[in-house]
Write a structure and sequence with these properties.
single chain, mainly alpha, 17 helices, about 75% helix, globular, disordered N terminus
Amino acid sequence: MTNPDTPKATSPGDVRMPPPSPLRPVSVAVAGLPRYVTIMLGVAVTLGVVLLMHQFAGVIGPVFMAMNLIIAAYPIHTWLRGKGTPGWLSASVMVLAVIVILLAMFVAMVWSVSSMVAVLPNYQNEYTSLYNTAVHLMQNYGINTTGMSDIRNQISPSSVANVLLQAFSSAYGIAAVLITIIASLIFLAMDAPGLRARMRIASSDFPQLGHALAEFSSGVRRYWVTTTIFGAIIAVLDGVALFFLGVPLAVVWALLSFLTNYIPNIGFVIGLIPPALLALLGGGWKLMLIVIAIYCVLNFVIQAIIAPRIIGESVGVTPTVSFVSLLLWGWVLGAIGTLVALPMTLLLKSLFVDSDPGAHWLGALISSDLKDVQNRPKARGA
Protein backbone atom coordinates (compact mmCIF):
# COMPACT_ATOMS: atom_id res chain seq x y z
CA MET A 1 0.00 0.00 0.00
CA THR A 2 1.30 3.41 -0.88
CA ASN A 3 1.72 5.98 1.81
CA PRO A 4 -0.10 9.18 0.75
CA ASP A 5 2.58 11.30 2.43
CA THR A 6 5.27 9.72 0.30
CA PRO A 7 6.17 12.01 -2.62
CA LYS A 8 5.24 10.56 -5.97
CA ALA A 9 7.98 9.53 -8.37
CA THR A 10 8.30 11.79 -11.34
CA SER A 11 9.20 10.78 -14.83
CA PRO A 12 11.78 12.75 -16.84
CA GLY A 13 8.96 14.60 -18.58
CA ASP A 14 7.10 15.37 -15.38
CA VAL A 15 9.06 18.32 -13.98
CA ARG A 16 7.60 20.16 -11.01
CA MET A 17 8.74 23.76 -10.67
CA PRO A 18 8.99 25.18 -7.15
CA PRO A 19 6.59 28.01 -6.36
CA PRO A 20 8.01 31.44 -7.15
CA SER A 21 9.43 33.51 -4.32
CA PRO A 22 7.22 36.46 -3.31
CA LEU A 23 10.27 38.67 -3.76
CA ARG A 24 11.02 37.43 -7.26
CA PRO A 25 8.26 37.61 -9.87
CA VAL A 26 7.95 34.88 -12.46
CA SER A 27 9.69 35.96 -15.65
CA VAL A 28 8.15 35.11 -18.97
CA ALA A 29 10.63 34.36 -21.74
CA VAL A 30 9.87 34.18 -25.43
CA ALA A 31 10.92 30.65 -26.35
CA GLY A 32 12.97 30.17 -29.49
CA LEU A 33 13.80 33.87 -30.03
CA PRO A 34 17.22 35.48 -29.59
CA ARG A 35 17.61 38.01 -26.81
CA TYR A 36 17.98 40.97 -29.16
CA VAL A 37 14.69 40.04 -30.89
CA THR A 38 12.95 39.91 -27.52
CA ILE A 39 14.34 43.35 -26.66
CA MET A 40 13.20 44.77 -30.01
CA LEU A 41 9.73 43.34 -29.47
CA GLY A 42 9.61 44.95 -26.05
CA VAL A 43 10.65 48.31 -27.48
CA ALA A 44 8.05 48.00 -30.26
CA VAL A 45 5.28 47.23 -27.76
CA THR A 46 6.33 50.17 -25.60
CA LEU A 47 6.25 52.55 -28.56
CA GLY A 48 2.84 51.19 -29.55
CA VAL A 49 1.48 51.86 -26.07
CA VAL A 50 2.92 55.39 -26.08
CA LEU A 51 1.35 56.16 -29.46
CA LEU A 52 -1.96 54.73 -28.29
CA MET A 53 -1.84 56.96 -25.21
CA HIS A 54 -1.09 59.91 -27.48
CA GLN A 55 -4.20 59.13 -29.52
CA PHE A 56 -6.39 59.04 -26.39
CA ALA A 57 -4.62 61.89 -24.57
CA GLY A 58 -7.91 63.78 -24.20
CA VAL A 59 -9.18 61.04 -21.89
CA ILE A 60 -6.05 59.62 -20.25
CA GLY A 61 -4.60 62.99 -19.22
CA PRO A 62 -7.67 64.36 -17.38
CA VAL A 63 -8.45 60.99 -15.75
CA PHE A 64 -4.89 60.63 -14.45
CA MET A 65 -4.97 64.26 -13.26
CA ALA A 66 -8.17 63.50 -11.35
CA MET A 67 -6.54 60.44 -9.79
CA ASN A 68 -3.64 62.60 -8.62
CA LEU A 69 -6.01 65.11 -7.06
CA ILE A 70 -7.91 62.36 -5.24
CA ILE A 71 -4.64 60.93 -3.90
CA ALA A 72 -3.55 64.38 -2.71
CA ALA A 73 -6.89 65.04 -0.99
CA TYR A 74 -7.36 61.53 0.44
CA PRO A 75 -6.20 62.59 3.96
CA ILE A 76 -9.40 64.68 4.15
CA HIS A 77 -11.43 61.50 3.70
CA THR A 78 -9.29 59.62 6.23
CA TRP A 79 -9.58 62.40 8.83
CA LEU A 80 -13.36 62.64 8.48
CA ARG A 81 -13.72 58.87 8.74
CA GLY A 82 -11.67 58.98 11.93
CA LYS A 83 -14.19 61.47 13.33
CA GLY A 84 -17.03 59.04 12.67
CA THR A 85 -18.31 60.62 9.45
CA PRO A 86 -20.09 58.20 7.08
CA GLY A 87 -17.97 57.06 4.13
CA TRP A 88 -20.21 58.59 1.47
CA LEU A 89 -20.24 61.97 3.24
CA SER A 90 -16.48 62.12 3.79
CA ALA A 91 -15.88 61.19 0.14
CA SER A 92 -18.33 63.88 -0.98
CA VAL A 93 -16.61 66.53 1.13
CA MET A 94 -13.23 65.46 -0.27
CA VAL A 95 -14.26 65.69 -3.90
CA LEU A 96 -16.15 68.95 -3.32
CA ALA A 97 -13.03 70.54 -1.82
CA VAL A 98 -10.96 69.42 -4.80
CA ILE A 99 -13.51 70.78 -7.31
CA VAL A 100 -13.68 74.16 -5.55
CA ILE A 101 -9.88 74.50 -5.55
CA LEU A 102 -9.70 73.42 -9.20
CA LEU A 103 -12.32 75.95 -10.32
CA ALA A 104 -10.66 78.69 -8.25
CA MET A 105 -7.32 78.07 -9.96
CA PHE A 106 -8.99 78.10 -13.38
CA VAL A 107 -10.69 81.44 -12.63
CA ALA A 108 -7.38 82.85 -11.38
CA MET A 109 -5.65 81.75 -14.58
CA VAL A 110 -8.32 83.35 -16.76
CA TRP A 111 -8.10 86.57 -14.76
CA SER A 112 -4.31 86.75 -15.04
CA VAL A 113 -4.37 86.17 -18.80
CA SER A 114 -7.11 88.76 -19.34
CA SER A 115 -5.12 91.29 -17.30
CA MET A 116 -2.04 90.68 -19.45
CA VAL A 117 -4.09 91.07 -22.63
CA ALA A 118 -5.44 94.41 -21.39
CA VAL A 119 -2.08 95.89 -20.29
CA LEU A 120 0.49 94.67 -22.83
CA PRO A 121 -0.67 96.86 -25.79
CA ASN A 122 -0.05 99.97 -23.64
CA TYR A 123 3.71 99.33 -23.89
CA GLN A 124 3.88 99.40 -27.69
CA ASN A 125 5.70 102.76 -27.76
CA GLU A 126 8.30 101.63 -25.22
CA TYR A 127 8.81 98.46 -27.22
CA THR A 128 9.34 100.42 -30.45
CA SER A 129 11.88 102.70 -28.75
CA LEU A 130 13.74 99.70 -27.32
CA TYR A 131 13.70 98.03 -30.72
CA ASN A 132 15.17 101.09 -32.45
CA THR A 133 17.93 101.31 -29.84
CA ALA A 134 18.81 97.65 -30.30
CA VAL A 135 18.88 97.95 -34.11
CA HIS A 136 21.08 101.06 -33.95
CA LEU A 137 23.50 99.27 -31.61
CA MET A 138 23.67 96.24 -33.91
CA GLN A 139 24.35 98.42 -36.93
CA ASN A 140 27.22 100.13 -35.11
CA TYR A 141 28.84 96.69 -34.68
CA GLY A 142 28.29 95.80 -38.33
CA ILE A 143 25.52 93.23 -37.72
CA ASN A 144 23.01 92.72 -40.53
CA THR A 145 19.51 93.88 -39.43
CA THR A 146 17.58 93.07 -42.61
CA GLY A 147 15.03 90.72 -41.02
CA MET A 148 14.63 92.56 -37.74
CA SER A 149 11.37 94.23 -38.80
CA ASP A 150 9.62 90.88 -39.13
CA ILE A 151 10.85 89.82 -35.69
CA ARG A 152 9.58 93.09 -34.23
CA ASN A 153 6.08 92.48 -35.55
CA GLN A 154 6.00 88.87 -34.35
CA ILE A 155 7.02 89.47 -30.71
CA SER A 156 5.54 92.90 -30.08
CA PRO A 157 3.30 93.42 -27.03
CA SER A 158 0.23 93.63 -29.27
CA SER A 159 1.03 90.35 -31.05
CA VAL A 160 1.68 88.59 -27.74
CA ALA A 161 -1.66 89.84 -26.42
CA ASN A 162 -3.41 88.54 -29.55
CA VAL A 163 -1.80 85.12 -29.12
CA LEU A 164 -2.96 84.94 -25.51
CA LEU A 165 -6.45 86.02 -26.52
CA GLN A 166 -6.66 83.39 -29.24
CA ALA A 167 -5.41 80.70 -26.87
CA PHE A 168 -8.31 81.33 -24.51
CA SER A 169 -10.89 82.00 -27.20
CA SER A 170 -11.31 78.26 -27.71
CA ALA A 171 -13.01 77.80 -24.36
CA TYR A 172 -14.63 74.60 -25.57
CA GLY A 173 -11.42 72.59 -25.28
CA ILE A 174 -10.63 73.93 -21.81
CA ALA A 175 -14.19 73.31 -20.63
CA ALA A 176 -14.07 69.75 -21.99
CA VAL A 177 -10.91 69.03 -20.00
CA LEU A 178 -12.42 70.48 -16.83
CA ILE A 179 -15.64 68.49 -17.27
CA THR A 180 -13.66 65.28 -17.78
CA ILE A 181 -11.57 65.94 -14.67
CA ILE A 182 -14.63 66.75 -12.54
CA ALA A 183 -16.53 63.70 -13.78
CA SER A 184 -13.52 61.50 -13.06
CA LEU A 185 -13.23 63.01 -9.59
CA ILE A 186 -16.83 62.11 -8.82
CA PHE A 187 -16.47 58.49 -9.91
CA LEU A 188 -13.12 58.08 -8.16
CA ALA A 189 -14.65 59.50 -4.98
CA MET A 190 -17.31 56.77 -5.13
CA ASP A 191 -14.53 54.19 -4.86
CA ALA A 192 -12.75 56.00 -2.02
CA PRO A 193 -14.62 54.37 0.93
CA GLY A 194 -13.52 50.85 -0.08
CA LEU A 195 -10.12 51.74 -1.46
CA ARG A 196 -8.15 50.85 1.67
CA ALA A 197 -9.75 47.39 1.90
CA ARG A 198 -9.10 46.73 -1.79
CA MET A 199 -5.44 47.65 -1.45
CA ARG A 200 -5.10 45.41 1.61
CA ILE A 201 -6.50 42.42 -0.30
CA ALA A 202 -4.25 43.08 -3.30
CA SER A 203 -1.20 43.46 -1.06
CA SER A 204 -1.86 40.09 0.56
CA ASP A 205 -1.37 38.39 -2.83
CA PHE A 206 1.33 40.69 -4.20
CA PRO A 207 3.08 42.29 -1.21
CA GLN A 208 5.88 43.86 -3.22
CA LEU A 209 3.44 45.51 -5.65
CA GLY A 210 1.20 46.67 -2.83
CA HIS A 211 4.16 48.24 -1.06
CA ALA A 212 5.26 49.97 -4.28
CA LEU A 213 1.77 51.41 -4.91
CA ALA A 214 1.57 52.62 -1.32
CA GLU A 215 4.89 54.41 -1.78
CA PHE A 216 3.61 55.86 -5.05
CA SER A 217 0.54 57.28 -3.30
CA SER A 218 2.57 58.84 -0.51
CA GLY A 219 5.15 60.16 -2.98
CA VAL A 220 2.52 61.75 -5.24
CA ARG A 221 0.74 63.28 -2.24
CA ARG A 222 4.02 64.66 -0.94
CA TYR A 223 4.87 66.02 -4.38
CA TRP A 224 1.60 67.93 -4.83
CA VAL A 225 1.51 69.27 -1.28
CA THR A 226 5.15 70.33 -1.47
CA THR A 227 4.68 72.01 -4.85
CA THR A 228 1.60 73.87 -3.63
CA ILE A 229 2.99 75.11 -0.31
CA PHE A 230 6.41 76.21 -1.48
CA GLY A 231 5.00 77.49 -4.77
CA ALA A 232 2.68 79.75 -2.78
CA ILE A 233 5.59 80.99 -0.65
CA ILE A 234 7.66 81.81 -3.73
CA ALA A 235 4.69 83.50 -5.41
CA VAL A 236 4.05 85.77 -2.40
CA LEU A 237 7.71 86.77 -2.16
CA ASP A 238 7.88 87.40 -5.91
CA GLY A 239 4.75 89.55 -5.77
CA VAL A 240 6.06 91.62 -2.83
CA ALA A 241 9.40 92.18 -4.59
CA LEU A 242 7.74 93.21 -7.85
CA PHE A 243 5.40 95.58 -6.00
CA PHE A 244 8.26 97.43 -4.28
CA LEU A 245 10.22 97.55 -7.55
CA GLY A 246 7.27 99.23 -9.24
CA VAL A 247 6.67 96.51 -11.86
CA PRO A 248 3.06 96.71 -13.10
CA LEU A 249 0.64 93.81 -12.45
CA ALA A 250 2.65 92.48 -9.51
CA VAL A 251 -0.31 90.38 -8.30
CA VAL A 252 -0.81 88.90 -11.76
CA TRP A 253 2.85 87.90 -12.05
CA ALA A 254 2.79 86.39 -8.55
CA LEU A 255 -0.25 84.33 -9.50
CA LEU A 256 1.43 83.28 -12.75
CA SER A 257 4.51 82.24 -10.76
CA PHE A 258 2.32 80.05 -8.54
CA LEU A 259 0.51 78.38 -11.45
CA THR A 260 3.63 77.72 -13.53
CA ASN A 261 5.35 76.28 -10.47
CA TYR A 262 3.39 73.05 -11.12
CA ILE A 263 5.35 72.56 -14.36
CA PRO A 264 8.64 70.92 -13.35
CA ASN A 265 12.01 72.29 -14.50
CA ILE A 266 10.78 74.90 -16.99
CA GLY A 267 7.79 76.33 -15.09
CA PHE A 268 10.05 78.76 -13.25
CA VAL A 269 11.34 80.15 -16.56
CA ILE A 270 7.81 80.49 -17.99
CA GLY A 271 6.71 82.46 -14.93
CA LEU A 272 9.78 84.70 -15.10
CA ILE A 273 9.60 85.82 -18.75
CA PRO A 274 6.50 88.12 -18.62
CA PRO A 275 7.49 90.21 -15.57
CA ALA A 276 11.09 90.43 -16.80
CA LEU A 277 9.96 91.74 -20.19
CA LEU A 278 7.53 94.18 -18.61
CA ALA A 279 10.30 95.41 -16.31
CA LEU A 280 12.50 95.88 -19.39
CA LEU A 281 9.82 97.91 -21.17
CA GLY A 282 8.90 99.96 -18.14
CA GLY A 283 12.23 100.43 -16.35
CA GLY A 284 15.06 99.41 -18.65
CA TRP A 285 17.80 96.81 -18.53
CA LYS A 286 18.75 97.35 -14.89
CA LEU A 287 15.24 96.71 -13.61
CA MET A 288 14.93 93.59 -15.75
CA LEU A 289 18.21 92.20 -14.39
CA ILE A 290 17.06 92.92 -10.82
CA VAL A 291 13.79 91.02 -11.42
CA ILE A 292 15.66 88.07 -12.92
CA ALA A 293 18.10 88.00 -10.01
CA ILE A 294 15.31 88.09 -7.40
CA TYR A 295 13.39 85.28 -9.10
CA CYS A 296 16.50 83.11 -9.42
CA VAL A 297 17.62 83.63 -5.84
CA LEU A 298 14.19 83.01 -4.32
CA ASN A 299 13.59 79.92 -6.43
CA PHE A 300 17.02 78.44 -5.68
CA VAL A 301 17.00 79.13 -1.95
CA ILE A 302 13.46 77.87 -1.32
CA GLN A 303 13.25 74.97 -3.78
CA ALA A 304 16.83 73.70 -3.63
CA ILE A 305 17.87 74.47 -0.04
CA ILE A 306 14.93 75.04 2.33
CA ALA A 307 12.34 72.60 0.93
CA PRO A 308 14.56 69.48 0.87
CA ARG A 309 15.76 70.16 4.44
CA ILE A 310 12.20 70.46 5.77
CA ILE A 311 10.36 67.66 4.00
CA GLY A 312 13.10 65.69 2.27
CA GLU A 313 13.09 64.51 -1.34
CA SER A 314 9.60 64.65 -2.86
CA VAL A 315 10.30 63.99 -6.53
CA GLY A 316 11.72 60.46 -6.34
CA VAL A 317 13.73 60.55 -9.60
CA THR A 318 16.90 62.27 -10.74
CA PRO A 319 16.74 65.74 -12.36
CA THR A 320 17.61 64.28 -15.76
CA VAL A 321 14.78 61.75 -15.58
CA SER A 322 12.48 64.55 -14.41
CA PHE A 323 13.33 66.71 -17.43
CA VAL A 324 13.05 63.86 -19.92
CA SER A 325 9.69 62.84 -18.45
CA LEU A 326 8.48 66.42 -18.90
CA LEU A 327 9.35 66.32 -22.61
CA LEU A 328 7.91 62.83 -23.09
CA TRP A 329 4.59 63.23 -21.30
CA GLY A 330 4.17 66.76 -22.63
CA TRP A 331 4.19 65.26 -26.13
CA VAL A 332 2.11 62.20 -25.24
CA LEU A 333 -0.63 63.91 -23.20
CA GLY A 334 -0.37 67.52 -24.36
CA ALA A 335 -0.48 70.51 -22.02
CA ILE A 336 -1.88 68.49 -19.13
CA GLY A 337 1.04 66.09 -19.55
CA THR A 338 3.43 68.78 -18.34
CA LEU A 339 1.49 68.90 -15.06
CA VAL A 340 1.35 65.14 -14.48
CA ALA A 341 4.76 64.29 -15.97
CA LEU A 342 6.42 63.46 -12.66
CA PRO A 343 3.43 61.59 -11.16
CA MET A 344 3.13 59.51 -14.34
CA THR A 345 6.84 58.68 -14.19
CA LEU A 346 6.50 57.77 -10.50
CA LEU A 347 3.61 55.43 -11.34
CA LEU A 348 5.64 53.60 -13.98
CA LYS A 349 8.58 53.46 -11.57
CA SER A 350 6.36 51.89 -8.90
CA LEU A 351 4.84 49.32 -11.26
CA PHE A 352 7.95 48.20 -13.12
CA VAL A 353 10.93 49.08 -10.91
CA ASP A 354 10.00 49.29 -7.23
CA SER A 355 7.77 46.20 -7.35
CA ASP A 356 10.39 44.07 -9.12
CA PRO A 357 13.57 43.19 -7.18
CA GLY A 358 15.09 42.15 -10.51
CA ALA A 359 14.98 45.82 -11.58
CA HIS A 360 17.10 46.89 -8.61
CA TRP A 361 19.82 48.10 -10.97
CA LEU A 362 17.38 50.35 -12.87
CA GLY A 363 16.15 51.88 -9.63
CA ALA A 364 19.74 52.77 -8.75
CA LEU A 365 20.05 54.66 -12.06
CA ILE A 366 16.83 56.71 -11.96
CA SER A 367 15.99 57.12 -8.25
CA SER A 368 17.00 60.27 -6.43
CA ASP A 369 17.22 58.57 -3.03
CA LEU A 370 20.07 56.04 -3.18
CA LYS A 371 19.63 55.02 0.46
CA ASP A 372 16.11 53.86 -0.26
CA VAL A 373 17.33 51.86 -3.27
CA GLN A 374 20.04 50.20 -1.21
CA ASN A 375 17.49 49.11 1.39
CA ARG A 376 15.22 47.45 -1.16
CA PRO A 377 15.40 43.64 -1.53
CA LYS A 378 17.34 42.29 -4.48
CA ALA A 379 16.37 39.33 -6.62
CA ARG A 380 18.32 36.15 -5.96
CA GLY A 381 21.31 35.94 -8.21
CA ALA A 382 21.16 39.60 -9.21
